[in-house]
Design brief:
This protein has 104 residues and is mostly helical. It is built from four helices and no strands.
């Protein structure tokens, strides 16, 4: 089956890219403020990141489910930069929170 979607495939990939970047920043700040560490932080970021893309891909896009290459492109779009941004923000926020708690 196919659903109708406004815009092109490239516009959808651009949207996914920028939403992932914003998500990386937001989750990095939250994880740092709540002092989340280790595998729980990594795995929860991956689950949320891929989960949102999966929902968007399955609910709103009008792409054939037989098109595996297209599906792979959507799941890869912007992931590595989002992950890098998440790590940067998470580490800086966590280090700042720990540093401030050592001062007081």
């Amino acid at each position: 089956y196919q659903r109708r979607v406004r815009g092109s495939k490239d516009e959808a990939k651009t949207l996914i890219h920028w939403v992932r970047q914003l998500l990386g920043i937001i989750l990095g700040v939250i994880w740092g403020l709540f002092e989340i560490k280790g595998a729980i932080g990594f795995l929860s970021f991956l689950l949320i990141n891929f989960g949102l893309v999966f929902l968007y891909y399955n609910k709103y896009l009008s792409l054939s489910r037989d098109d595996e290459e297209s599906e792979k492109e959507f799941f890869q779009e912007g992931f590595l930069t989002s992950f890098g941004l998440f790590l940067l923000v998470w580490i800086v926020t966590y280090s700042s929170v720990i540093g401030l708690s050592l001062i007081h």
